[in-house]
Input
Amino acid sequence: MGIANVLITEDNVDLQIELTDFLEFNGYPTQAVDTLASMNEKLSTDQFDFLVLDFGLPDGDGLAAIPSIRKRFGRSLGIIALTARGQPKERVAGLEAGADYYLVKPTYLPELKAVLEHLQSYIEKPTIDWVLNLSQQQLMSPNGQLTTLTGTEVLLLQMLSKSDSMVDREQLSSSIFHVSVGDTRRLDTLVCRLRNKVVKKTGLSLPLTTYRNKGYQLGAMMIQE
Output
């Protein structure tokens, strides 16, 4: 079973930390946010397989957000409701809105792990990978759109594609820009601009996961010489 990335949207800091630590310990790269706005930003910039979603959030109702998330990502994103709303009619409303599973707080954490393992066996994946053409310096998205890249952008994606795990940002920065250890500003700017360029051109988010202050990990991408 391959790596599956999880985004937690939960405004209770203690629970957020507990969930993140548990999932990371069980092999799921996990990021956490505390508002719907932050969630939408993360979904636009990083690649996730699962969303664990609380309903009572400071800037809105997670339940009301599910239909638009489902419309945007289809069945490529597993949605797990994790909320204190435990009445039968509330559970039905969550499932009807598009959640794959509905868990009520307080949740037995091994149950969450079992849900993730079950969902991972059937969530849909794009049948066409991203394709990076080195000679043409072009990136083709799964929907067939082409993005012309700079040489530095190509080098970044090529380096990331050689690893199945996170690549340290200082290592990347040193290799690409030949700067001293600790100076990652140009790298972070490069990644931000590349993401924006790809979204603007293709309408899709680059399959690139950010590990805050640590590094980057690239999802499935075919390399053509």
